[in-house]
Amino acid sequence: MTTHVDTPKNIAILGASGYTGAELVRLIATHPGMVVRAMTADRKAGMAYGAVFPHLRHLDLPELTKIEDVDFSEIDLVFCALPHATSQNVIRELPNTVKVVDLSADFRLRDPETYAKWYGGEHTAVELQKEAVYGLTEYYREQIKSARLVAGTGCNAMTGLMPILPLLQAGVIDSDDIIIDLATGVSGAGRSPKEGMLHSEVSEGYRAYNVAAHRHLAEFDQEMSLIAGKPVEVTFTPHLLPQNRGILATIYVKGEAQAIHDALRAKYDDEPFVYVLPFGESPATQHVRGSNYCHLGVIPDRKPGRVMVFSTLDNLTKGSSGQAIQNANLMLGLPETMGLELAPLFP
Amino acid sequence: MTTHVDTPKNIAILGASGYTGAELVRLIATHPGMVVRAMTADRKAGMAYGAVFPHLRHLDLPELTKIEDVDFSEIDLVFCALPHATSQNVIRELPNTVKVVDLSADFRLRDPETYAKWYGGEHTAVELQKEAVYGLTEYYREQIKSARLVAGTGCNAMTGLMPILPLLQAGVIDSDDIIIDLATGVSGAGRSPKEGMLHSEVSEGYRAYNVAAHRHLAEFDQEMSLIAGKPVEVTFTPHLLPQNRGILATIYVKGEAQAIHDALRAKYDDEPFVYVLPFGESPATQHVRGSNYCHLGVIPDRKPGRVMVFSTLDNLTKGSSGQAIQNANLMLGLPETMGLELAPLFP
Amino acid sequence: MTTHVDTPKNIAILGASGYTGAELVRLIATHPGMVVRAMTADRKAGMAYGAVFPHLRHLDLPELTKIEDVDFSEIDLVFCALPHATSQNVIRELPNTVKVVDLSADFRLRDPETYAKWYGGEHTAVELQKEAVYGLTEYYREQIKSARLVAGTGCNAMTGLMPILPLLQAGVIDSDDIIIDLATGVSGAGRSPKEGMLHSEVSEGYRAYNVAAHRHLAEFDQEMSLIAGKPVEVTFTPHLLPQNRGILATIYVKGEAQAIHDALRAKYDDEPFVYVLPFGESPATQHVRGSNYCHLGVIPDRKPGRVMVFSTLDNLTKGSSGQAIQNANLMLGLPETMGLELAPLFP
Amino acid sequence: MTTHVDTPKNIAILGASGYTGAELVRLIATHPGMVVRAMTADRKAGMAYGAVFPHLRHLDLPELTKIEDVDFSEIDLVFCALPHATSQNVIRELPNTVKVVDLSADFRLRDPETYAKWYGGEHTAVELQKEAVYGLTEYYREQIKSARLVAGTGCNAMTGLMPILPLLQAGVIDSDDIIIDLATGVSGAGRSPKEGMLHSEVSEGYRAYNVAAHRHLAEFDQEMSLIAGKPVEVTFTPHLLPQNRGILATIYVKGEAQAIHDALRAKYDDEPFVYVLPFGESPATQHVRGSNYCHLGVIPDRKPGRVMVFSTLDNLTKGSSGQAIQNANLMLGLPETMGLELAPLFP
């Protein structure tokens, strides 16, 4: 059994029957500062977690319950892995003694109108929306430490923001000409059965989806414009990969390659989970699989002034559940890296 | 057995032990106008082809031999699927009564200096290099009909050239700002054992390779500059997919989306193997798998004047062996589509 | 375009929106003796087929309709690719001038009680059930030629029956000790979204399913007992593979290996689609992918008297839609192999 | 950084450039009782480990060296992940103050003649061969605690032995009729480039290999005969799966299913890494991926007296490097489960 610190924090996971829920449980299983006290899944209430996710059947976990059956008075922090739109309704009703890390899209956007535009409906918890801190740890670390509600970033959004924000901040790229070509594994689409996510449809195949219309564009706009101090709009084409985990963004920017590499190193050299590869190298999704690491690379194009910047992370770990635990560690006063130093699984 | 036309053409395949060789044999197996009379593979001479490629063991094929043991006097056309650099030495020695479709890179570039720069050595058959016709059927059809030597295009090159050439020709895009982001299956790397192509290294992973340095850049430069009437240099980032077959290019251009779609339709609506998807749709590699079809799509970016153009084909079929047979049909006076109308294999 | 025979047969496909339907269309696309005149899919009536299966968008096909909108008076043969239980109700209502190849399980079992036991309900077309011929071409060729209704075999059933029936017939194995260990690709599970068939659940994984309870056991019992002239009950464990196409059965029998190999060769050496590998070799699913071929192999165990017999085929081709066309060819007086000689797709 | 116990043990890994070497490093990265002090790879001496395995580039590791450059006086335990035959020559020369866990096949067989028969040559360290303890922890725990040299089991051997040994010991199965049908991922074949292990050859395919001739048969014979007290010879057919990690054995035995399930539970209910599924359930490789767990299942056949027993584990973890660390923990006086409680990675 994992040896815990003296008084591990009590955790509840709402919406534990999806992949991000299972990833939280996987990571907390060997996290010395957290213990899962409650897990909910409305339609699977009453089931043992090992019946829903047999890979975790060896763990000693509470039974799945409905949300209304959770005693939140004993809970220090809630991870909310519910679907978009549902999440805001549930979090609104939680006692405000409990800290919350939300993995949905509900609290990523600060502006209610922007939210309504991209998600097709009014936000039902506008006050909380204002309070929520965007969970990009490497940029909002201090706010996260004192936050009650942290909004997990979009997994694609994070993959793009990590390399671009330092470049905008350092002023080393043209903010009007940023193209993010991105490829993601299928686990980001969740566990709900969909024809397009069947093995027969996905394997041995590659295609774009939601071209020029992906909702993570809203996060790109919000965060990039903020850091640049002026409106920034990127071009963004996501693609679906025939693999489960991993996102890789190939980003086309204009600037000077060495200055770009320098800016990334200046920003990330002291970060525990971000690794800037040597100049001229590019990363691979299989080398961060199952881990909380993000690898960045810079390669100059043969055309002067054009540069390719690469970014990869595991969508279920650094892109969602690992990031959520990193933020929770900060909110709970635990060491930021606690429970997250698992090395990538390769091959 | 396939019913043949009255006098099928006699075919030799040099270098039949690789994937492009096997793809030629697969396609010729049901081609009514061709019969394989000789197959060579120096290190496997004497072996039955079914021992090298068990999926073709049901076919009645000649034994593998060395090149010097082929009687070329009975051969109408040679497919040369030998490695780069070897190919030119072999083709130079063939009797000039025989027509040749070369699948290597040896005769793709018209300029000896350009060849030397990209392939790292002097060309040994400069006269033939001048004579060779570039095998992009949809652009060189008439020259191919009367050619003795046709040079198969690079598979990545073809995937990019098909959508871009009509746009340069029609003058509907900015020729100074073309970015080709491309992903390809592993079969293009061939059957020689390499650590990086092991299943354990490739599956569940995605990464760029040869960034800004891929040799197919030379073909892009040559063909785009020619059609544009001025030097055109693209930005090109190839990636390796965890799948066997299929290439998809996502191309970022500046222009007006509808004009771009119109230009593609004007060029390709009468082509037998090129299909321009309805405006706003993008293609998928799994929908051309194993076929000679190329699917193109156009989607406008949210940023005015920026457009994404998509192109997909099967690297072993339209990207190499299918294209080779299409060209051979023309050279031999057979119907251009003969033997190539196999529908894609999905799932 | 495919060159057709003088008067190609008119074909209707009922239930064309599933994988077996698409495989029928793929194969008929280059079949010179068949033309698809009607295609149905109740919930997708009115749609273009290329919108349902984009890999077939280049084909000139009729629009999807409801079954009641098909004019069967112009149809020579119907392929019925509807779900089990639905199929019998539809076929019962077809005019009896039309020939039918049913790909469901509804007419595989001759005995109504056996049907009710395995499929959990009374058969609604018992008279047709009696009339139907079991579609194992290599065993029922003559009956199929004159049949009005042919029942396609189960894909797993076929993979096991092909190697075992000749051995029972020749009396070279112990009929009381037959173990069929089988692994199948996921496309056999169809296109309906199911959690267990998602890419994330299937890829990088292997597991048994329906152990000792798979419905294809009923076909094994029926056909093996018939040929052996006494009750034969096999042990059967199917497994799910992380791949789309292909079934491989590893069959453990007691007998003398050379006699077993001889019995297979005696039965199949003249069959156009069955290939018995040299003694001591075993087949691979990737070598029959997308084709109508079945490969068989025999290897003696180190324990005297114990033998492993291997059988592989593509579940969507020889295991269902290819077999269906082979039978339809016979029913329509066409050459048996017409349209089915496509070589396997590898890699 | 991982918080270590007060005096972590000093570890050397010989042959660190293969997959089992990388798996050792991955596991030790978060093992609080071990620190890697030396790593060797003859042909890659001088390289940083992160250049050989980029997924581990974030770790602070010693540079790769040659074996002769290791100072073994500071090493507590050596993991030897060298190829078969090489291993014995290297281990023979190590100072006998150092403990050794060997992951090769060199010390698995106790009898020199048996070794010579299966591995095709004389053993060069016969004295050590006698001394070595077979690393099947659940059976040799006490001997391992005091051993100087422990021989890691074959990964396939372990998958079969775990479920069968308790049944032979309890006398609940017929020892003359045991069939092990097994499927394994490709990572067991190692990182050396081989045509048969290319992605194009393996993916979308399934086939048997080394039928009736696999060297792990020698381990089956040795351990089963020992525990049964009489010669036991199993039938064994390994297959290659299109996935990286995971082995699943489907074992056909004769006996009473409930008694078999009881015997497994009696043996393993207190074991930390072995999980016997509820009666009637079967395991899946994807549910132990990347972990040290072994899942067992029992399902009765429809034929009375015939039972299917299932066993799965990750070949690189419980099947080799995880098992090696479990044994090393025992040899070093550390808690047996230390560093090994990582939950499986799914999806």
Automatic annotation (TrEMBL), chains A, B, C, D:
Keywords: Amino-acid biosynthesis, Arginine biosynthesis, Cytoplasm, NADP, Oxidoreductase. It catalyses: N-acetyl-L-glutamate 5-semialdehyde + phosphate + NADP(+) = N-acetyl-L-glutamyl 5-phosphate + NADPH + H(+). Its EC number is 1.2.1.38. It is found in: Cytoplasm. One of its GO terms (cellular component) is cytoplasm. Pathway: Amino-acid biosynthesis; L-arginine biosynthesis; N(2)-acetyl-L-ornithine from L-glutamate: step 3/4. GO terms for molecular function: N-acetyl-gamma-glutamyl-phosphate reductase activity; NAD binding; NADP+ binding. The active site is at C155. GO terms for biological process: L-arginine biosynthetic process. Residues 10-147 form the Semialdehyde dehydrogenase NAD-binding domain. SUPFAM superfamilies: Glyceraldehyde-3-phosphate dehydrogenase-like, C-terminal domain (SSF55347), NAD(P)-binding Rossmann-fold domains (SSF51735). HAMAP family: ArgC_type1 (MF_00150). Belongs to the NAGSA dehydrogenase family. Type 1 subfamily. Catalyzes the NADPH-dependent reduction of N-acetyl-5-glutamyl phosphate to yield N-acetyl-L-glutamate 5-semialdehyde. This is N-acetyl-gamma-glutamyl-phosphate reductase. It comes from Neptunicoccus cionae. The gene is argC.
